[in-house]
Amino acid sequence: MDTLLVRSARIIDRNSPFHNKKADVLIEGGVIKEIGKKIQNITAKEYESDNLHVSPGWFDMQVHFCDPGYEYKEDILSGIEAAAAGGFTGVACMPSTLPPLHNKSGIEYVVNKARGAPVDVFPVGAITHKLEGKEINEMYDMHRSGAIAFSDDKNPVQDAGVLIRALLYVKTIGCPLLLHCEDKSISNNGDINEGVVNVFLGLRATPPLSEEIMVARNIQLAGYAGSRIHFGTISSGQSVELIAAARKTGIGLSAGIAAHQIALDETHLTSFSTDLKVNPPLRTGKDIRVLKKALAENIIDVICSDHTPEDTESKMREFDTAAFGITGLETLFALCTTFLGGTLSVTEIIDKIAVNPRKILNLEVPVISEGKKANCTFFDPARKWTFKTTDIRSKSRNTPFINREFTGKPLAIYNNGIFRRGGE
Asked: What is each CA distance from 134 to 101, 157, 377, in whole angstroms?
């Protein structure tokens, strides 16, 4: 295990007695041995950087590693490299693989392939067989094998009866269901948000109603079943109002957004770049303002990347036949600090990308304190930099942010006894 002496880092951790203080941090044997001023250790590897900050290791609650079945887009090992470069020490890996992660052997495959890596990879099991929304899987067996939650990913369970049974089943396990809210009969295979831009471009539209009606339905079902649900990628301002009202009633509900939803609106689509084709689609500037306010008011708990790698052949085609998705692990933090700087403090951003995801998933939250396991991310929230293709560790490059200038950069991680510099 790497012995590391970190020099003069500002600690960002509400749960630490050293929160917002500058100190040296000595890590030995994977444990934080000492925090203080001018620590001496001649055997440790030293690490220092301008304006260095350290926080609990970041956790991305929604990534797609495409393994097994679509390894030409991403595999678990390349996904780990992308996560490390983005400052993440943990991720929740969605089940839309081939075959899907819908049984214990699929869960065990992911767990075993990621074992010992500097990034902890936690599989999310499929709610229904083959993600078809018809037959509930053996969720208890998958949970015992390592599944930390359950989801049908971007294939929302359309049958309310099936979802109620899943909610009742998962209640005995104690895991949340991670739900993508989309009524397929209303979204109707649309490509972008319904509005002026879709009319101008002549592209098929997905109205916000397709999300909002499923948010309302799923809230009702969760309340009926007494189970916990998490909405992973909320995009509509009206959805936020529904969530805010439901939370006042005590329903076990949490919500997240994808980082690109606070940086891009539907007007960017006039470029016809298929790297901007995402699900849910980019909404309006008004929606973004509501999402930011909801983050500040803790109506939205989590910011994820919704990291969705796609090969060139799936993206370099006409817009209506191109695949959905953006790779986001390497840019999530930069999007937060660049576009939320006037909305959230650095500490509040860390809550959204490190603390809250683990709380929702019943995982131990790392603490920057003496005697605790070292699970840390090092970063500079004020560093100016330009995102280049050389910064991409994912196998895929379907991102609209190449050559974009950002403020805020992940620099390195330490987890499972491994120090990894990735963002410098």
From this structure: 16, 8, 41
d(CA 158, CA 144): 27
Mean pLDDT over residues 238-265, rounded? 97
Write down the pLDDT at residue 14: 97
Average pLDDT (365-379) is 98
Provide the whole-model pTM: 0.97
Cα gap 130→127, rounded to integer Å = 9
Owner of token pair 């510099």: 421
Cα gap 347→274, rounded to integer Å: 34
- Assigned architecture for domain 4-53+370-421: Roll (2.30)
Which amino acid is present at 424? E
Q: Which residues are catalytic?
A: 306
The CATH number for 57-360, chosen from 3.20.20.140, 3.30.470.20, 2.40.100.20, 3.30.1490.480, is 3.20.20.140
Q: How many angstroms separate the CA atoms of 279 and 42, rounded?
A: 51
Per-residue pLDDT reduced to its tens digit, 144-172: 999 999 999 999 999 999 999 999 999 99
